[in-house]
């Protein structure tokens, strides 16, 4: 590793572009820096809205999110804690209790509408077509069930494998995710594995049914940086074999350069900027993205001193402001519309969208990453 601090989660939106987390040759559909991938998307999310009934009123947590995922690509969903990353993803799996949640809009998985789908249909989608890896495997692994059964359960249910076939596949998957002596470990319980090994078991479960879409919700945040890099690489290798589309959720903009083709920046339940990863670093158009990039530590620096973080807090989801949600924290908000009108997410370049009235003017500014000497992979 490069020895810099700030790569671990310190609770703030800071990160470290890593030179060692090189991008594996994934089966991309041609996204990269050239623009949006071609071909049919496997997942089409359109105007997704999620709100919760609370004692204080309706909390508007996801506010009109639209995006596509294509086979074999990795898209990073980045934003501060509380910006709606997990809720918008749990909605894809039908995992939000309704009520208190209300889910509106459209989520189509290979053409199948998931919003309003029956419990049976959603159960079939979960683990089979869309799998999710969570940050803390201890909360999603069953502590009283041997891991072998946890890995094979979905395959037996969704793929109809026999006990022997499922066991063989479990051993193969556990080998591929780097669990030593997997045959012997099938009978072990989650607490008998280290944190990194548990996360590998979670990945094996996530990939057990060759999902069309894998959602990785901050799966490496709690892990040592070396293990983080190994897990990123592992998912990329497996993805190259299977063509799975990956939605990689993180609060850390510094890690996405090494793992994603495209980045979506989320703020107050909206995508405020979306771009191929290089364009986002070179030519950020939303003041929030610039703020996040300016707060990344420079490679080789050993202290956090001098980093700019974004002052202020995101808006209260129970009292969303009528105008731009970033307005209270924005330092360039001199357009008269900012306070009263929500800026639409508009195309500003190939595959590059930004929701700010300032997108044109931002193009004139130097990149806070390139010009500060922060290197990206
Ligand atoms: N059941 C719930 N009821 C009310 N608010 C909720 C509920 N679940 C999540 N939220 C709110 O939704 C917002 C987004 O949460 P989340 O998606 O977990 O954020 P992120 O994953 O980006 O850190 C937060 O403000 C959180 O408090
Ligand atoms: S629309 Fe206005 S307030 Fe919002 S980010 Fe752009 S400049 Fe700032
Ligand atoms: Mg989350």
TrEMBL record:
<feature type="region of interest" description="Disordered">
    <location>
        <begin position="1"/>
        <end position="42"/>
    </location>
</feature>
<dbReference type="InterPro" id="IPR027417">
    <property type="entry name" value="P-loop_NTPase"/>
</dbReference>
<dbReference type="GO" id="GO:0015833">
    <property type="term" value="P:peptide transport"/>
</dbReference>
<dbReference type="GO" id="GO:0016887">
    <property type="term" value="F:ATP hydrolysis activity"/>
</dbReference>
<dbReference type="InterPro" id="IPR003439">
    <property type="entry name" value="ABC_transporter-like_ATP-bd"/>
</dbReference>
<keyword id="KW-0067">ATP-binding</keyword>
<dbReference type="InterPro" id="IPR013563">
    <property type="entry name" value="Oligopep_ABC_C"/>
</dbReference>
<keyword id="KW-0472">Membrane</keyword>
<dbReference type="GO" id="GO:0005886">
    <property type="term" value="C:plasma membrane"/>
</dbReference>
<dbReference type="InterPro" id="IPR003593">
    <property type="entry name" value="AAA+_ATPase"/>
</dbReference>
<dbReference type="InterPro" id="IPR050388">
    <property type="entry name" value="ABC_Ni/Peptide_Import"/>
</dbReference>
<keyword id="KW-0547">Nucleotide-binding</keyword>
<keyword id="KW-0813">Transport</keyword>
<dbReference type="Pfam" id="PF08352">
    <property type="entry name" value="oligo_HPY"/>
</dbReference>
<feature type="compositionally biased region" description="Basic and acidic residues">
    <location>
        <begin position="7"/>
        <end position="21"/>
    </location>
</feature>
<dbReference type="InterPro" id="IPR017871">
    <property type="entry name" value="ABC_transporter-like_CS"/>
</dbReference>
<feature type="domain" description="ABC transporter">
    <location>
        <begin position="43"/>
        <end position="293"/>
    </location>
</feature>
<comment type="similarity">
    <text>Belongs to the ABC transporter superfamily.</text>
</comment>
<dbReference type="GO" id="GO:0005524">
    <property type="term" value="F:ATP binding"/>
</dbReference>
<dbReference type="Pfam" id="PF00005">
    <property type="entry name" value="ABC_tran"/>
</dbReference>
<protein>
    <submittedName>
        <fullName>Oligopeptide transport system permease protein OppB</fullName>
    </submittedName>
</protein>
<keyword id="KW-1003">Cell membrane</keyword>
């Amino acid at each position: 590793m490069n020895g810099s601090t700030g790569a671990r989660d310190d609770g703030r939106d800071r990160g470290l572009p890593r030179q060692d987390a090189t991008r594996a040759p994934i089966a991309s559909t041609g996204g990269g820096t050239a623009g949006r991938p071609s071909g049919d998307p496997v997942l089409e999310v359109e105007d997704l809205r999620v709100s919760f009934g609370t004692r204080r009123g309706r909390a508007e947590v996801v506010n009109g999110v639209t995006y596509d995922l294509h086979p074999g690509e990795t898209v990073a969903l980045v934003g501060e804690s509380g910006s709606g990353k997990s809720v918008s993803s749990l909605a894809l799996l039908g995992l939000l209790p309704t009520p208190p949640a209300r889910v509106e809009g459209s989520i189509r998985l290979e053409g199948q509408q998931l919003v309003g789908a029956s419990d049976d249909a959603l159960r079939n989608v979960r683990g089979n077509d869309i799998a999710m890896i969570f940050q803390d495997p201890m909360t999603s692994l069953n502590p009283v069930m041997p891991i072998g059964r946890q890995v094979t359960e979905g395959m037996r249910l969704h793929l109809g494998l026999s006990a022997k076939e499922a066991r063989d596949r479990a051993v193969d998957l556990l080998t591929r995710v780097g669990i030593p002596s997997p045959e012997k470990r099938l009978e072990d319980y989650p607490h008998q594995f280290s944190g990194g090994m548990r996360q590998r078991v979670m990945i094996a479960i996530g990939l057990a049914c060759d999902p069309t879409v894998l959602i990785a919700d901050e799966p490496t945040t709690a892990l040592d940086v070396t293990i983080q890099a190994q897990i990123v690489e592992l998912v990329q290798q497996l993805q190259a074999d299977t063509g799975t589309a990956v939605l990689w959720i993180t609060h850390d903009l510094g890690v996405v350069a090494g793992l994603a083709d495209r980045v979506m920046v989320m703020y107050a339940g909206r995508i405020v900027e979306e771009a191929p990863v290089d364009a986002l670093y070179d030519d950020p158009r939303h003041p929030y993205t610039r703020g996040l990039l300016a707060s990344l530590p420079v490679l080789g620096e050993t202290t956090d001193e001098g980093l700019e973080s974004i002052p202020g807090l995101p808006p209260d989801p129970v009292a969303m402001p009528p105008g731009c949600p970033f307005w209270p924290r924005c330092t360039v908000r001199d357009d008269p519309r900012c306070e009263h009108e929500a800026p639409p997410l508009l195309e500003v370049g190939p595959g590059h969208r930004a929701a700010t009235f300032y997108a044109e003017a931002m193009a004139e500014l130097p990149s806070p990453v390139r010009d500060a000497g922060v290197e990206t992979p």
